[in-house]
Amino acid sequence: YDYFFKITDFILKNDSSSCFLILDEILKLGFESKHFITGLSEHFRNLLLCKDENVSKLIEVSDGIQSKYSKQSQKISNEITFNALDILNSFDINYNLSSNKRLHTEIVIAKLCRLKKKIVSKKRSEEKVKESQGNENKEGDSNSNEITQNEKEDTINKSETIVNKSTQKKNITKNTPDLNSILNGDLKTEDLKTED
Fold it and tell me: Tens of pLDDT along 60-96?
């Protein structure tokens, strides 16, 4: 059990070097890497079960080991535990296909050590995306306010233009003699002066 608690602590610290040294020590003691990884899978399962007091009763270990599991389970998130179990399960499935069992085991340990860092960077990326979306919404709101203000100004300008054209039309109509006046010779002197 001690090896599993140690290696889990190193995994949480992203310390792959120490994990590789522990693996080497275990392999030198004559254990197969498959048994080590299977035991590590069970260790992560137990950590997951210890998150819930009612379910932790399913773990068949002494009270001392049970308290170690409880302490370590508080340090590790469910997301890391689930991802670790997924990696370990894939390892177990592909173990017999591997021609270099030790390298296969070391790759699994390296992946486990990168888990916490990967999850933290994923969360940061998600936060940045949410933050940028929030900024875009704020900018969108101010842009829509600017558009609304611009639309109002355009409407006012169009109204002023229509009024000005209407006034000009009236002035032209006043100052322009009509055809009947010209034919009848009823032109006023005022109209003649404006034409010049």
Answer: 888 888 889 889 989 988 899 999 999 999 999 999 8
Return phi, psi of residue 177, to 5°.
-75, 145
Residue 87 corresponds to which amino acid?
I
Helix (H) or strand (E) holding 86: helix 78-94
HSE toward the beta carbon, residue 36, CA cutoff 13 A: 27
Reduce the DSSP state of residue 19 to 3 states and report it. helix
Model pLDDT, residue 106: 93
Q: Which amino acid is at 174?
A: K
* Angle (CA) 72 78 82, round 5°: 110
pLDDT tens digits, one per residue of 90-135: 999 999 898 999 999 999 999 999 887 777 676 677 777 777 777 6
3-state secondary structure at position 27? helix
Q: Phi and psi for 25 in degrees, rounded to 5?
A: -60, -45
The phi and psi torsions of 90 (rounded to 5 degrees) equal -60, -40
**pLDDT exceeds cutoff 60 at 151:** yes
Torsion angle of alpha carbons 62, 64, 68, 69, nearest 10°?
20
Q: E strands within the chain?
A: none
